[in-house]
Specification:
Elements: H1 7-38, H2 49-54, H3 70-76, H4 85-94, E1 96-100, E2 105-107, E3 115-121, E4 124-129, E5 136-142, E6 147-148, E7 161-164, E8 168-174, H5 175-179, H6 183-218
Amino acid sequence: MRALGSPVHDALLRRAIAGTTHRSQVFDRVLAQLQVGKFAAPASASSGIFRRLWRRVARTTPNPAECPPLTGFLAHHPLLGRASPPVRAAIAEAFTPQAFRAGQVLLRQGDADARVLVLAAGQADVLRTIDARGGSMLLGRLEPGALVGVDAFAGAARTASIVATTAGWVHAMTRDTFERLPPAARTAWLEVTLAGSVRRFEAAAQALQAAIGVFASRHEETTPWQATATAPQPAGEAWKQR
């Protein structure tokens, strides 16, 4: 179907992206509940990481000549590197370079921000607020080349904030611009989106499994599945992902 340019192929990709994104969000919500309800949240006196990062500690704007072009990232991407030069060129033209300063919130948790970002220069932290007092958890750090918000076009709200720790540049593509891509380029980006959504789902599943393990070790007497953990299991196929 892909070789024929069938719209059914794109429709299947969009459906798979939506389903994977939804499952990732469910895992994220459960993980957040475990972290808030059972893990030690930062005290109010030490929970100001967002406030410290959001301070306008730098006003300088990088020189546009220092913004690395997007073509290099696309050429080295595992999927887009196999696409034709015209497809990569069309995708590159859909992105707009944008400068940011240190401390700037590039994407905010909870927002339905329909933009995909490619970090071109600078660094940023991935932070998740886990309590009403502003306590936050560092999920990771982003370096140039990172693709951020890959499933934004599925209408999903942001599950974490991206906060710049240095000045730099991003390339940004909006959903409207994406929908105006030539068919071949749009299909190629949908495939990139699905691959990214699957990786995010796998990471969320692993994080949730680790959190459940910690929860169980700390609350053995109240863990409901402890009573049946040693019960004989019927023979049959191993559990499959649904």
